Amino acid sequence: MSSAEWADGASRAPGPPGFDLDHAGLKAWLQEDDPARLELLWMEADRVRKARVGDAVHLRGLIEVSSHCVRHCLYCGLRAPTVELERFRMEADEILACAQEAHRLGYGSVVLQAGEDPGLTKAFITEVVRAIKGDTPLAVTLSLGERDDEELREWKAAGADRYLLRFETTDPVLYRRIHPNLPGVPSDRFAQLQRMRTMGYEIGTGVMVGIPGQTWDTLASDILRFREFDMDMIGVGPFLPSPRTPLGGQGVAAFLAAPSDQVPNDELTTLKAVALTRLVCPDSNIPSTTALATLDQARGRELGLLRGANVVMPNVTPVHYRIRYEIYPGKACVNETAEACQDCLDGRIRSLGRSLGKGPGGRSSRAM
C-alpha cells in the first residue's frame, strides 16, 4: 500500500481559510516573525486542536529501558563511540514495575524507549510486552529504532499497540551525513514506517528543528511528509546535541547551511513547526516534547500545549537509570521522581484550563 493510499480525506483537505499549507505557504509561516501574524497562527492551531482532539492532555509514561546503541549518529550522547558513558539495560521485572507505577499514576500508556540495542532481543521485548499487557490496561508503545519485520510482527502479536520511529529529516543527503550507516546495514525509516502500518501498529514519527544543514525548504517538506503518511503521532522538538558528539562541538560549523537558509534550533521556530503540524495533521497526537521543555524549563511544555500539542510524556524511569540516559545534557525533570513529575504536570496542565486524559489516548479518527 502506498503512502498516498493511507491519506484520508481530512489529511488531504486544504488548510483553514487564510492559511496556505502547501510547501510555499509552510515555508513562509516558518519564517514569519510578525507577532500579530504569529498570534493568528497560535490561535488557529489551538482552535483546531480543541475541535479535533479536545482539551484532554494524554500522559504517556516514558521508560528508558537501555542506553546501549550500535549507531553512530553525530549528535546523540548514546552513540556507540561514546566510551565514557555508563551504560545500562533494565531487567524485565524493572520495566514492568515502571509500567505498574505509570498505571498507578493514572497514565493510559507507556513508551519503551532505547538506543538501537541488539541486547533487547525479540524474545525479551515479547516477554516484557506480554507482562505489561497482562498486568495492566496500558497501551504499549515501542521506540527501539530500526528493527526487522520478524521482530516487529512478534511484538505486535504480543500486544504492542504503537511504534515510534523518527525519520528526523526528509533530506536523504542530510540524513546520511548525520546518521552514518553501519557497514552492510541498510537504513530506510520511511519503508519501516510503511510496513508497520500494514502490520496494524499506530505509527509515530518526528523531526528535529534546527539540524545543522536543515533548510527552510527541508523543514517545510518534513511537515508535508507528516500529512502524506497520515502519521498517528508526531514529535517535533528542537535539535539539542550532546557536547561529546561531532555536532555538539566546534566541528558543527562544517555542517551548517548558508546563514539565510539554516533553520535555527530555537523555541520560536519549534513552536511554529508544532502549530503548522497541527494544521496539516488535525487528528494526530502531538506531544509537547521533553526537548522543548529542556530549552525552556519555565514555560516550554505549556507553550507547546498552547500551540497545538495534546500529549505529554512524563518520565517514569527510575532516577538512577534516567540520569545515565543522556542523549543531550540538561534534560528537563531528570532528577524528579515519577510521582513528583506527575504532581507538577497536573498543576501545569490544569493551569491552562485543560484536563488530564483518560485511557490509552489513541488516534481519535482511527480505532485502536
From TrEMBL:
Stored SMART domains: Elp3 (SM00729)
Cofactors (names): [4Fe-4S] cluster
Radical SAM core domain ranges (all copies): 55-282
Record bears the keyword Transmembrane: no
UniProt cross-references to InterPro entries, sorted A to Z: Aldolase_TIM, Elp3/MiaA/NifB-like_rSAM, FeFe-hyd_HydE_rSAM, HydE/PylB-like, rSAM, rSAM_sf
Entry keywords, A to Z: 4Fe-4S, Iron, Iron-sulfur, Metal-binding, S-adenosyl-L-methionine
A molecular function GO annotation: metal ion binding
Top-level taxon of the source organism: Bacteria
Residues annotated as binding [4Fe-4S] cluster: C69, C73, C76
Annotated binding of (3R)-3-methyl-D-ornithine, by residue: S143
Binding note for cofactor: Binds 1 [4Fe-4S] cluster. The cluster is coordinated with 3 cysteines and an exchangeable S-adenosyl-L-methionine.
Short name of one Pfam family: Radical_SAM
Binding site for S-adenosyl-L-methionine: E168, L240
Official protein name in the record: [FeFe] hydrogenase H-cluster radical SAM maturase HydE
Source species taxonomy: Bacteria, Pseudomonadati, Acidobacteriota, Holophagae, Holophagales
Gene: hydE
